[in-house]
Amino acid sequence: MKKILLGGFILILAVSPVRAQDAGTQQQIDKLSGQVQDLLAAQEQQGKRLAALEKEISDLTDKVNSPAASTGASADDLKALAEKVQEIDKKRQDDRELILKQLELLGNAGGGKAPHHPPKPVVDTTPAGADNPATPAVPQKGYDYTIAPGDTLSAIAKAYRAQGVKVTTAQIIAANPKLNPNALIAGKKIFIPDAAAK
Question: What is the CATH number of the domain that holds 131?
């Protein structure tokens, strides 16, 4: 009986470490199982990232391989634009001519700044010292002009220059020494010299 008791006791002692080993093994298995689950979760996240990267690469590849959308202008677009610019420029020129005609009409009708009649060629043959000591001894060629209301010397000179007569306000003042350039009298005749006339 002692042998049986001793055998049972040995068996109990043998089973205890086995149970202790089973508990330790179970803990290790649980720990490994948790680590495996963590690895699986990480692998799943990596799989999602890879799928997103694959989609992005695929989209970029499609974008590179697809025909590029035209961001520049074609020759037809440039031609159409050039035609529109020419059309606008022609309208601008037409408007300018219309404005100039209207200004001329207003100047003629309302006594504007521009001379109201074309110049008449005359030759001043007054000898030096006869009526005006500042008049040159050589006959001077030019035009008689009747001052209109609202005229200025600069406007008169400009109008004559527009008709091809090269004259300045200083030349008009020199040719008309009794003329007060700041107080022009409407109806008074002045002489417009033309140095180019022969």
Answer: 3.10.350.10
Q: Is the pLDDT of residue 102 over 90?
A: no
**Which residues constitute the domain of residue 130?**
120-193
Q: If DSSP states are collapsed to H, E and C, what string results for 73-95?
A: CCHHHHHHHHHHHHHHHHHHHHH
Cα distances from 39 to residues 43, 59, 62, in angstroms, run 6, 30, 34
Determine whether 159 is exposed, middle or buried from the number of CB atoms within 10 Å of its CB (0-12, 13-18, 19+): buried
Residue 156 resides in a domain = yes
> What angle is formed at CA 33 by the lines to CA 32 and CA 34, rounded to 5 degrees?
90
Q: In terms of pLDDT, which residue wins out, 67 or 111? A: 67
In total, how many domains does the chain have?
Answer: 1
* Residues 6+ away with beta carbon under 8 Å from 9: none
